[in-house]
Amino acid sequence: MLQSDGYCHFIDEWWSHSWGHSEKCKSVFGALRKNRQGSRVGIDISSTTVKLLELSESNGEYRVEAYSVASLPQGAVFEKNINNVGEVVSQPKVITGDKQQATIKSGTQIPYQEGAASGATTTQFKEAVLKLDVTPNITPDDRILLDLVVNQDSVGELVPSANGGVVPSIDTTELTTQVLVGNGETVVLGGVFKNEETIQIQKVPILRDMPSVGSLFKSTVSTNKKVETLIFITPRILSEVLLD
Q1: By the 8 A CB rule, do 73 and 187 touch?
Q2: pLDDT value at position 136?
Q3: Looking at residue 13, what is its pLDDT?
Q4: Which one, of 2, 10, 12, 11, lies nearest residue 235 by Cα?
Q5: What is the predicted pLDDT for the residue at 87?
Q6: CA 28 – CA 31 distance, rounded (Å)
Q7: For residue 8, what pLDDT is reported?
Q8: Is residue 26 assigned to a domain?
């Protein structure tokens, strides 16, 4: 459970996404081991609880220090919704048999023009999708061993091609892992934190170069964009009655 100014609740989500900065956030779910350099390297199995991420304070704000694979009690999935800026990017669901691979993807195909040596142009497509590949293996004690590959693609910058025109680049976040989860429990597979800073300077020609008063004719705009992506998955064993 993640707390901020007394705001906390549980939801059932698979992939969450948030941006902005957090205020007065608390650390969650216990402690992780530290190596000699102080970085967090895994789950301390001697602890009765598990910390999913560490939030450290700097100038009155908190920032994420580390992630670790960890399971949560059934139904206790925290919502990463600080200052009302979190959202669920996607929540795909798929049914498959024991030891049978399943794939589900959702997204778009991006068209672009590609030039040929003859001078003709053809329309090609690139995929930008959210994709989940999963192979479950049910253990005798009704737990589930999952082989997972998760991809989240998004459209990046347009790159000039050798034959003229531009080709869209694809920004990709990929996770490949194997986890053992209890029936109906939720596991946090990992997270990606990005910080993008841009500075834009606007000036009035000629006047900006005047001594003493030149600074009155220019302005500087600084933006700081923080994006955080967390991946959750909840496997459930379906009875034969539900499958009929």
Answers
A1: no
A2: 92
A3: 34
A4: 12
A5: 64
A6: 8
A7: 31
A8: no
Q: 138 is written with which tokens? A: 């049910």
Number of domains into which the chain is organized: 1
Residue 51 domain-assigned?
A: no
Alpha helices for the chain (secondary structure H): 240-243
Output the pLDDT for position 4. Answer: 30
pTM of the model: 0.52
> Rounded CA gap, 171 and 219, in Å?
32
E strands, the chain, are 15-19, 32-34, 40-43, 53-58, 61-67, 70-72, 86-90, 102-115, 121-138, 143-160, 166-182, 186-203, 218-233
Q: Which residues of the chain have pLDDT under 70?
A: 1-90, 115-119, 162-165, 191-194, 240-244
Structural domain of residue 103, as residue ranges? 92-179
Structural domain includes residue 146: yes
Q: How far apart are CA 62 and CA 21, in angstroms?
A: 8
